Amino acid sequence: MTPRERRRLTKLHLYERSAWESGAQMVCGVDEVGRGPLAGPVTACAVVLTKPLLLEFLNDSKLVTPIRRAALAAQIRAGAAFFAIGWAGPEEIDAINILGATRLAMARALAQLPFPPCRVLVDAVHIPQCAAPQTAIIGGDGKSAAIAAASIVAKVARDEYMEMLDETHPGYGFSHNRGYGTEEHLAALDRLGPCSAHRRSFAPVMQPTLFAFADGGSP
Q: Number of C-alpha atoms within 13 angstroms, CB side, residue 178?
C-alpha cells in the first residue's frame, strides 16, 4: 500500500475514529443500492467495525471496478466485526415508494445484526426504526469507511441477485443492466411487458410504449 493510499484510508475513518474515541465501540455503516432501477429489489447492508478497516481501494462502490468490488466484498465480510443485508422487493417499493422501501431495507439489515450497534453512520437517509444514535452523511459512501464497506457488500449482493433474476426472467438483460432503464431494457419492456420483478409504480414500466415512441419507435 502506498503512503498516499494509507493517508486516504486514514481520512476515510474520520467519522469512525471520532465515534470510537467517544466510547462507541461498535460503529455501523449503512448504505443501499438499487434505488434507480426499474426492476429488482433495493438492497441495504449494515457493516459493523470495531477497528479500522485498512483495505486498499476501499471506497464508494461506484468508484470501484467490478473485479475489485468482488474482492473487497470478500475482505470486508472477513474483516468486519459483523455485517447483515436487508432487502425490500418490487411490491414493497410500489406500496410505500422507493424512499420508504430504502429505509425498510436498511432497518431490516440492522435488525439482522447479532448485536445492536453503538453508533450508526448512514448515507444521507434517516432510518426511523433505528434505536442507536445515527448520523446521516451526504455522500457518506465516499467519506466513511463503514458506509463505503456497506455500499460494496450491498452492490455485490444485489448484482448476484439480478444475475439469478436473469435466469428466471430472460429477455430483459438483468445480468448486465441490473434492472436499470437502458435502451435494451426499455425495448424488452415494450416487447415483453413487465414481469413480476418490475416496479410497476415506475413510469417506464407503467407505460413502456411512450418511451419507445420518444426514442423514435413506432406503435
A: 14
pLDDT in tens, 49-65: 999 999 999 999 999 99
CA–CA separation, 192 and 143 (whole Å): 42
For residues 19 and 119, is the Cβ–Cβ distance under 8 A? yes
Convert the pLDDT of each residue in 127-153 to its tens digit: 988 899 999 999 999 999 999 999 999
CA-based nearest residue to 51, from 120, 152, 146: 146
DSSP 44-107: EEEEEESS----TT---GGGS-HHHHHHHHHHHHHHSSEEEEEEE-HHHHHHHHHHHHHHHHHH
Q: What pTM does this model have?
A: 0.90
- Crossing angle of helices 145-168 and 14-21, in 10° steps, is 120
Q: Which residues pair with 136 in a beta bridge?
A: 122
